[in-house]
Specification:
The complex is a heterodimer of chains A (320) and B (395). Chain A is mostly helical and 320 residues long. Chain A has 16 helices and two strands. Chain A has one domain: ABC transporter involved in vitamin B12 uptake, BtuC (Orthogonal Bundle). Chain B folds into two domains: 190 residues, Rossmann fold (3-Layer(aba) Sandwich), CATH 3.40.50.2300; 129 residues, Rossmann fold (3-Layer(aba) Sandwich), CATH 3.40.50.2300. Chain B is globular, with a radius of gyration of 24 Å. The chains are: A mainly alpha (320), B alpha/beta (395).
Chain lengths: 320, 395
């Protein structure tokens, strides 16, 4: 119980420590790459936690935002020859601006209607990337994307630092006044508005933050694969990101990071099953999600007796 | 807790800023990458095959794997190469370019002497730097001309570049079918687009221009608009370039729209048996495609291969997806002569001149191994050979 308690309190620090030490064990290239992809996915998943977990709207278009970030970095780096760090910073900014545009329909639309808008958005981005050949290379893809730091370890540590910073910032956001506003919008937007909270403002803000993180993740994606092709940004990919968040417990940052690792690594771990692997992968995920809507990490957390704490001293009604 | 995270945040911010500063100032310097370790004195010879076993190209991934496996089993049954057995690994690359990188990393981690695949040009382009860094000779598929123009000495291609698939198709269409007003319908993917770009100049040689050019997105289900646009433009023939599922549906919808009399010309994706299943046999009749091998070719060696394959696996072949059978024999022949040193294998591949079962393979300066093309027409449920062309090899 004591170990559990320790792990719960310091989950993020433990993850950070493991990630920092991991390359020192000189893992094979392949495993290393899977961990890199997991980190990149985790950044996007945390962005979805802000949107879906804290505020409520469901997005099936995040692969489109990921693509926006990835292509922004890729195009600025290869075609416009911007300094790489500027291109890197531009990725979340551009994605954030697109997120702003995407945030506005969220004020009028709810539930399934909003979801359809996000699906359409994701597909539009993919199809634009497919057709704007001058810029994106179209179906041939964008090749030879340089990395911000031209070695594997450098990119890795940059990604670890970014993921952890994003995680800490999101956790703090959760406890802040803004976080409280987002959480109460999720519970009841009407009441929240009556209490004097500018609901529209906060909703759009959640979209922008989430989109910017997707853009950041996209820049890392471009650095990892060094080649971009629209086929990496389908609605299926959006659904996979959603899965990471759901599996991680919807509003748990640590859960999202761990679930990103699991969802990224599982199909690779199952490679020994060859042709049956994707089937088995799907079955495992189904079994894991089965039951109450909360994720596995959430369940473990509950078992160790913690109640969700929004701000010190404030207890929310258990929504389990 | 709060204090601890704050400390962590400060440290991480410093790391982030430091890396940004370092990279901002430092010139990009190419990273020295250790080539993957040469295989030690192992008892087996490892060959990894990246192929689409799941995903949208899965329907022909199996032909590739089966053909390669058949060669491996034959060689191993005959005692292997210099007494060593071949150990063959199939690795799913799902036809997705991001996944191709993952699959290729996995393949390299197995420490093979040579690799086959990935299947699509997008995957080849995404992953080619990996086998360049690891210095592993790789016999790819993919017909986009670009994949062998990257100056990567470890890239070879067991396929014919798309620029050669089209001239002969245009020739057959004009000379044998008297086509005057072709309409083109192609899918927005690297493969189909390359075919479109190649057929236009081929038409120009005969003074022809497409009466209309229509596109669609992969995964589309309804092609009525494109087909009717072609009909409206007065097309006397349809040139359809797409992946397998789309052309199957298109052939069917063409019949439903009463356009069965307008002949269809296509390339290898259309000669996969699954297209016939999708389209229905009656709508598949009369289809003309270019191909690297026509199963109606009377050559006894090819017919023997066909019989062997079909009796072993119990299904019809996709003729343009089985050349890795010869890839395995080529590699076996080279390894028998020079051993398992990857550099030597690469060198031997680059000056290859080999008579295989399915053709005569010669390596040109870009690493292309195949240099011939046929056209074929579907008649009475069988493919009938029409024209044949051989291309000069630039070494």
């Amino acid at each position: 119980m004591r170990l559990g308690n320790f792990l719960r309190k310091n989950a993020l620090a433990v993850i950070a420590l493991v990630l920092v030490i991991f390359p020192l064990t000189s893992p094979p290239d392949y495993q290393f790459y899977i961990v890199e992809r997991s980190l990149q996915n985790a950044i996007l998943a945390i962005g979805l936690v802000i949107l879906l977990g804290y505020t409520g709207p469901l997005s099936l278009g995040h692969a489109g935002l990921l693509a926006t970030g990835a292509y922004t970095y890729g195009i600025l780096a290869t075609k416009a020859h911007w300094p790489l760090w500027l291109a890197f910073l531009a990725a979340p900014v551009v994605a954030g601006v697109i997120g702003l545009a995407l945030g506005f329909p969220s004020l009028r639309l709810k539930g399934p209607f909003l979801m359809v808008v996000t699906i359409a958005f994701g597909e539009i981005v993919r199809i634009v990337a497919l057709n704007e050949e001058e810029l994106t290379g179209g179906p041939y893809g964008l090749q030879g994307i340089p990395r911000l730091i031209n070695n594997d370890l450098g990119v890795y540590y940059l990604m670890v630092a970014a993921t952890m910073l994003v995680a800490i910032a999101t956790l703090r956001l959760h406890r802040s006044r803004i976080g409280l506003a987002l959480l109460s919008i999720k519970e009841d937007p009407l009441v929240t508005g009556v209490m004097g909270v500018d609901v529209s403002n906060y909703k759009v803000m959640a979209f922008v933050l989430s989109a910017a993180l997707a853009g950041l993740s996209g820049a890392f994606f471009a650095m990892l694969t060094r080649y971009l092709n629209p086929d990496s940004f389908t609605i299926l990919d959006s659904a996979t990101y959603l899965l990471m968040v759901v599996l991680g417990g919807m509003d748990s940052v640590v859960g999202a990071i761990l679930a990103s690792g699991v969802v990224t690594a599982l199909p690779e771990i199952l490679r020994f099953m060859e042709r049956a692997r994707l089937l088995v992968y799907a079955i495992i995920l189904l079994l894991v999600i089965w039951g109450p809507s909360t994720g596995v990490y959430k369940k473990l957390e509950d078992r160790f007796g913690r109640k969700s704490v929004v701000a010190p001293g404030v207890k929310l009604v258990d929504r389990g | 807790m709060v204090r601890k995270t704050r400390l962590l945040a400060v440290v991480l911010s410093l790391v982030l800023v430091a890396t940004l500063v370092v990279t901002g100032c430092a010139q990009q310097k190419p990273e020295e990458k250790k080539p993957a370790e040469q295989p030690k004195k192992e008892e087996t010879i490892r060959i990894a095959h990246m192929a689409p076993l799941t995903g949208s190209a899965a329907s022909y991934g199996y032909y590739m794997i089966n053909a390669a496996k058949m060669a491996v089993e034959e060689i191993n049954a005959a005692g292997g190469i210099n007494g060593k057995k071949i150990e063959y690994f199939e690795i799913d690359e799902t036809s997705n370019s991001a996944q191709a990188v993952e699959a290729c990393k996995k393949a390299i981690s197995l420490n093979p002497v040579a690799m086959l695949g990935p299947n699509r040009s997008g995957g080849v382009l995404a992953a080619e730097y990996l086998w360049k860094e690891a210095k592993i000779p790789t016999i790819t598929d993919g017909t986009s001309a670009e994949t062998t123009k990257k100056g990567n000495p470890y890239t070879f291609r067991m396929q014919v570049a798309s620029e050669y698939w089209m001239p002969i198709l245009a020739k057959t269409a004009v000379e044998r079918f008297k086509v005057k007003k072709p309409a083109i319908i192609y899918g927005l993917n690297d493969y189909s687009k390359a075919n479109y770009l190649a057929i236009v100049p081929a038409f120009e040689k005969y003074g022809l221009k497409p009466v209309t050019v229509q596109t669609f997105n992969d995964g589309d289900q309804d092609f009525t608009a494109q087909l009717l646009a072609a009909k409206k433009a007065g097309a006397d023939s349809l040139f359809i370039f797409s992946y397998t599922p789309e052309i199957g549906k298109m052939l069917k919808q063409r019949a439903e729209l009463g356009m069965s009399k307008i002949p269809v010309f296509a390339e290898r994706a259309a000669s996969v048996p699954d297209v016939e299943k999708l389209a229905g046999s009656e709508n598949y009749e009369g289809l003309v495609t270019s191909t690297t091998w026509c199963t109606g070719d009377p050559d006894p060696k090819k017919q023997e291969f066909l019989k062997k394959y079909e009796s072993k696996y119990g299904h019809t072949i996709s003729a343009t997806h089985v050349n890795h059978y010869d890839s395995i024999y080529i590699l076996a022949d080279i390894i028998k002569r020079v051993g398992t040193d990857r550099e030597k294998i690469r060198e031997e591949l680059s000056k290859l001149d080999y008579q295989g079962v399915l053709g005569h393979y010669v390596c040109d300066k870009e690493g292309n191994l195949m240099h011939w093309m046929h056209t074929q027409v579907r008649q009475g449920g069988k493919w009938v050979l029409l024209d044949t062309e051989e291309y000069p090899v630039q070494r």
